[in-house]
Amino acid sequence: MAKTCIENCLTLTASKMAKIPRLYSRMVTWGKKNNLLGRISVVRVADLEIRLEYQVSETFICYQVRLNTTPLPWDSLRYWFSCPTCGRRVAHLHKPRYHTHFLCRHCHNLTYRSRQVNNRWSRMFKEFDKYK
Q: Contact 63/69 with Cβ under 8 angstroms?
């Protein structure tokens, strides 16, 4: 069975979430006006912590996610998420269609579409090599 692709998930980016001012809320949406794929409220509760609030089916979900920073050579910071499940430092959190939480790609066992396409081609060439 093929893995779910990251491109088919809702994705949050740490650097964008870090731009939300402290104690402010911002609505993040995916899709277009006529075809809304998802909507989530992100609240910056502390310098390095955000709260995600959204609804899946009829269940209201609310949890906090830690942000981490690493220094950059030009006196700036790069922001990262700490995955709520495994604690891994990641730039993006993803929510596949049938899951309830935003987690890293490792916890959701996600892959990139380009990896699946390349695997199909490599399998085909391996089959051709058998007949040489």
A: no
Return d(Cα 3, Cα 54) in angstroms, integer. Answer: 25
* Residue 14 pLDDT greater than 80, yes or no: yes
pLDDT number for residue 113: 75
The domain locations on the chain are 6-130
Number of neighbours of residue 109 by Cβ within 10 angstroms: 10
Q: Where are the alpha helices (DSSP H) in the chain?
A: 14-17, 113-130
Alpha-carbon distance 4 to 61, whole Å? 22
**Separation of alpha carbons 80 and 13, rounded Å:** 8
Angle at Cα 58 formed by Cα 1 and Cα 82, nearest 5°?
60
Pairing of strands 89-90, 92-95: unpaired
